[in-house]
Amino acid sequence: MGFPTHPIESYRRFVGDGAGCLARRVLPDDHQDDETAERCREIIRAEYAKCWADNTKPYPGVTELLTELQERGIPMAVLSNKPHDATRTVVEGYFPDYHFQVVRGALPSVPVKPDPAGALQIAEELGIPPERFVYLGDTDTDMHTAVAAGMFPAGALWGFRTAEELTANGARVLLKTPHEVVNLFNRAQSDGG
Prior knowledge:
Blueprint: H1 11-14, H2 19-26, H3 34-51, H4 62-71, E1 77-83, H5 84-94, E2 102-106, H6 117-126, E3 134-137, H7 140-149, E4 152-156, H8 163-168, E5 173-175, H9 179-190
Parallel strand pairs: 1-2, 3-4, 4-5
């Protein structure tokens, strides 16, 4: 669009709240009008659709975590601010051997995170009280969503944000590796939960 670029490292703070927020965050202050932001959002979505898989792969240990959770019969769900179709494509593309009870991206009928509506809707669909969910995420948005939904906010340090951010926004536990998620369930079972 001809605007100044940003260092790649800046995108750790720009992404995570959907393409609309990303567009607003990357645009110069004097180009924040709705028309420019919408044009930028459309360009972002078109580029993402072309290259989403180019440098994307699961974090180390994630597939082992999913295998363990699936073998234990622990229900799994995905809630993303990516468009719904893109979310399903990513999950089906990288995790075809795993059964997620719900895979949900951004839908026009449900507010995006950090609004808790999507998380609460998933809890209702699964018939599981929100307080019985471990909400695993790697951004402040995820922690806000978990807290607002009454779920257990677990911060994933293998993601792309800091421990300080996760803790400041409600993480009750910080996990260094995906395997530590299994330990949460081990502790809950030994505590009778």
